[in-house]
Amino acid sequence: MDLFSSTIAPFPSSPHPHSTCLKGRRLVVYSSRSSGSTNSPKEKMIISITGATGFIGRRLVQKLLSDKHKIHVLTRSRRNAQLIFPVESFSEVTIAEEQEWGESIQASDAVVNLAGMPISTRWSPEIKKEIKQSRVNVTRKVVHLINRMNADVRPSVLVSATAVGYYGTSENKVFDEKSPSGNDYLSEVCREWEARASEVDKDVRLVLLRIGVVLGKDGGALAKMIPLFKLFAGGPLGTGNQWFSWIHLDDLVNLICEALTNPSYKGIINGTAPNPVRLSEMCEQLGNVMGRPSWLPVPDFALKAVLGEGATIVLEGQKVIPAKAKELGFSFKYPFVRDALKAIISLSNSN
Ligand SMILES: NC(=O)c1ccc[n+]([C@@H]2O[C@H](COP(=O)([O-])OP(=O)(O)OC[C@H]3O[C@@H](n4cnc5c(N)ncnc54)[C@H](OP(=O)(O)O)[C@@H]3O)[C@@H](O)[C@H]2O)c1
Predict the structure, then answer these.
(1) Which of 62, 63, 76, 78, when mutated, tests ligand 1's pocket best, judged by the most ligand atoms within 8 Å of its CB?
(2) Which of the listed residues 73, 114, 142, 210 should we mutate to test ligand 1's pocket, taking the one with most ligand atoms within 8 A of CB?
(3) What CATH superfamily is the domain 28-350?
(4) Which residue's CA is the closest to the ligand 1 atom numbered 27?
(5) In what side-by-side order are the strands of the sheet with 205-211?
(6) Which of 29, 68, 164, 204 gives a 20 to 30 Å CA spacing to 20?
(7) Model's pTM, two decimal places?
């Protein structure tokens, strides 16, 4: 089982056919979709993405390419990005280092902003500062580059990541997009991150995705949790009562794609599955799909050893409901954690 491999498997089709009127340079292409009509018209777009080289970004690039869009990877390191997107297999990907971001964005119809230093580390005061600054600074830069362009050459949509950490943590409250922010460190990071994105000019459609814990094969919290889980024969983490607001990587990527093309997607949207679970249930389901009964608790210290203080995301959760996505009719391929885990574990076993 290779949970850390970066091989990119074929992406399942998006559930929502849509087309939008963007800038004049696009071509209309036809692609097959999993639900509804099989041949729906779709706009071919150029999309600039920060954080494209990361866990979510890699999958997003793969999906957008399969939908025949062109991608501009906005990165800090061309060398690293070229290793992830070698030109032989990614001819529709253009890589841009920071001094080229302006040009790349100007040539784009849309921007997705996913950059940020990983939070699964030890949180020294310096690292905490960088966790925040890496998000705030990249977002400020992207917004500045968009705003200084003439309205007729600007991308028409900015989809910017933020996180459910915005709401703070609670064992009994339920949070939707209208809930107030919390008062811990991560909620402060999210507020500032969102505030910078909200400075984009009003003629650019802004979607702020408050993302939950993303479950996927090739990275994120799950890849780090599984070996631990095996070691401790998979029991609840901490007390097990904490809420775990998760989303399958493919659903998140489909949500981003939908946000890019569907003009009804605007403002704050929670990127979480409709059925968050208590951590004890998440561990029980993981134990079941891995064929390991859940009986020994994984101690907090072990989780902190692999996730650093970033473990607070898992050890002190929040119950977040995707009210807006449901209202918009977004169809989740994995509404239940058992199915999501089953799909991920079977994919890992088959590689
Ligand atoms: N994964 C989750 O469960 C989850 C949950 C909630 C929110 N989010 C948010 O969603 C976004 C993407 O998540 P991810 O899991 O795909 O992240 P990731 O794998 O850690 O990748 C993020 C990307 O950000 C860039 N980056 C890293 N450190 C940076 C720094 N110090 N300054 C500027 N850029 C830096 C890197 O791109 P380059 O090296 O190419 O520049 C990296 O590939 C992040 O902002 C994350 O906070 C993720």
Answers:
(1) 76
(2) 114
(3) NAD(P)-binding Rossmann-like Domain (3.40.50.720)
(4) 117
(5) 93-96, 70-74, 46-50, 110-113, 157-163, 205-211, 267-271
(6) 164
(7) 0.89
Locate the ligand 1 atom nearest the alpha carbon of residue 53 and give its number: 43
Q: What beta strand segments (E) does 32-68 contain?
A: 40-43, 46-50
Between the CA of 36 and the centroid of ligand 1 the distance, in Å, is: 33
CA distance 263 to 265: 5
Torsion 273-278-284-286 (CA) sign: positive
Ligand 1 contact via 220 beta carbon (within 6 Å): yes
Ligand 1 midpoint to CA 136 (Å): 12
Q: Alpha carbon of 321 to those of 169, 245, 277: distances in Å?
A: 14, 8, 11
Ligand 1 mean position, distance from CA 53 (Å): 8
Q: Which residues pair with 28 in a beta bridge?
A: 43
Domain spans, the chain: 28-350
What percent of the chain lies above the pLDDT cut of 90? 65
CA–CA gap between residue 274 and residue 96 (Å, rounded): 36
